[in-house]
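Dear all,

This email documents one entry for the complex benchmark we are building for the journal club exercise. For each entry we list the sequence lines for every component of the assembly. Then comes the predicted three-dimensional structure of the complex as a C-alpha cell string, followed by one or two observations. Please use this as the template for your own entries, and keep the labels exactly as they appear.
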Amino acid sequence: MATTPNAATPSELSLNSRAWFRRIRGADEIAHLITFIAAASILLITVLLVYQLWVNSAEARAKFGWGFFATSTWDPVAGDFGALTFIYGTLVTSAVALVIAVPLGVGAAIFLAELAPPKLSASLTFVSDLLAAVPSVIYGLLGVFLLVPLMRTTIQPALKKTLGFLPLFRGPAYGIGFLTAGIVLAIMVVPFVLSVSREVLLAVPRDQREAALALGATKWESTWKVVVPAARIGIFGSVFLALARALGETMAVTMVVGNNPKISASLFSPGYSIAAVLANEFSEATGNLYLSALIELGLVLFLLTFILNGLARLLILVTTARGSGVLPS
Amino acid sequence: MSARLIWRKSLNAFMLSLTGICTLLTVSALFFILGYLIWNGGKDLSWSFFTHLPAPVGEEGGGMANAILGTLKLLALAALFGVPVGLLGGVYLAEFGGRTVPFLVRYTADLLNGVPSIVIGIFAYALVVMPMHHFSTLAGGIALAIMVIPTVLRNTESFLRDVPRALREGSFALGANKWRMIATVVLPAASRGILTGVLLALARVAGETAPLLFTAFGNRYWSPGLMQPTSSLPVIIYTYATGPYEDWHKQAWAAGLVLLGLVLLTNITVRAFLSRGSSYERI
C-alpha cells in the first residue's frame, strides 16, 4: 500500500479537537509523567547546587582542611585563605539585627494579632509585606547616603558618650561598620518576624484568651502569659527564619559594612561578611585556589542557611499544627 | 483600687501602647523609604533617563536605557525557564502526588527558597559561566529562573488545592479524563491566583542584585542577543552608589526610584486586584 494511514491525522487534529481529546484518553499517563519531571527537577536543582559547590571548592578544602574556619588571614597574593573574619562579621551583623528586629517584630505582631481591629490589622500587614518586597539594593542605597552619615555624626558619638564604658561602643566613629550593617539588616528582617509571628499568634485558640480574661487577667497579662507562651515555638521559628535571611543578605551589608577583614570587639569597627566578600571578589578572583576558597565560603553560607531554614519550618509547622488543631497537609 | 490593681492596669496600658509603637515604627519605614527616594531621585528623573545610554565617566547626563532593557530581558528569561517548571510541578503536587514525593518536593522548594541569592549566583556561575567562559544575559536569566521556581510551584499548588471538589467531580461526571479536567477546569479556575504568584515572584527577582553580579555582570552599552554581559537596574544602582562620582550618585537615586516604583506598583496591583477572591467564585 502506498498510502500512509497517519498522513491525515495532523489536519484532523486541528480540525476536530473533540476527536483529538478522545484519541489521547490515555494521555493521563503522559501528563502525570511531564508534571512529575517538573516537580522532580526542583530536587535535581538542589542536588546539583550542593554538588557544584562541593566539587568546585575541592581545591580549597584539600589545601586548608578544617583550618579554613580557624584562620583569619585572607591573602589572595600569597594564596593563603581563612574564613574566620568573614564568619565573625556575618554572625555579629546578624546578631545585632536580631537584637533590634525581634522585639520590634514580635511587639508589632502582638499589636496586629491581639489589639488591632481586623481591617486595620490586615492593611498594616499588607504594608509590612510591601516592606519585605523592597529590593535589598534600595536598603543599601539609603544605608550609604542616609544612615552612614547619620551614624558618624550623631548616633555613634551619642552611644559612645552614654554606653562608652562597654567595649562594644568604643573606637573611632567611621559611620560604616558592624553596627550600621546590623541596623540596616534589622529593618530588612522585621517584616519576616512580624508576619510569621502574627500568623502563629492568630493560630492560638480563642478560648485560651477568653479563659485568661475570665479569670481576671488584663489584656496584656492574657497576651503575655497565655497567648505568647502557647505560640512560643512558632515565634522561635520566625526568629530562625529572620536569622537565615540576615546571614545570607548580601547587597545592603556589602554597601555599609566597610569591607575590611578584621575581627574587633567594637561594633563601630568596619568589618566584612561572607556574602559581602563573595559580592566584592568573586568576579575578580584570579587563580583556581582563590576561586575555590570563595566557593567554599558560599558552601558554608549555604549550609548555615539550609540548616536554619529547615529548623524554622519545622518549628512553625509544629506550632500552627498544634494551635489550630488540624495537621496541615 | 488597690495599689496592685493600679500597677497591673498601668502595666497593661504601657505594654499595649509599646506594641502599638513597634507597629508604627515598622510600618512607617516603608513610607519613609518611599518618600526619601522620591525626594532624592525624583528631581533627576528625566525622559533621557529612559532613552539614553550611560554617559562616559566625567560627563553629565546620560540615561539607563540599556539597564532597563537588560532587566526586562532577564525577567523574560526567568519567566520563560522558571514559570513552566514551577507551574507543572505545582500541578503535580496538587493533582497527581502521592505521599512521599510531594512532601520531599515541598520541603526542598521551601529550603531552596531560603538559599541566599548570592549562593544562587555562584551556582549559575558554575553551571553556565564556567563552561562558556564568559558572562552572559543567559546566565543571569537562569540564576533568576532558579529563584522563581520554588515560589511559583508552592503558589500554584496552594491555589489549585483551593479549587472546590465539586468542580472536579462535575468535570469527571461529564466524561473528561484527568488531564483534560486539569487543563480545562481546574487551571482556569485557579488562573487568577496562579498569575498572582507568578507576578509576585517576578517582582521579587526584579530587584535581585547579588545573583547577577557574576552572571549577567554589567555593560555600559547595549547587549544584543543573550550571549553577552548585560547591564541591569539593580546592579547599576549598586555600582553607581558605591562609585566615586557625584553624578553617578544622582543617577543611582533615580534608578532606585524607578526600581522601587516598579516593584511596589506590581505588588500593590497584584495583591489588591488579582488576589481578591478566587475566580472560580465567578464561574
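Observations: Chain A has one domain: 84-324. The first helix of chain A runs from residue 9 to 15.
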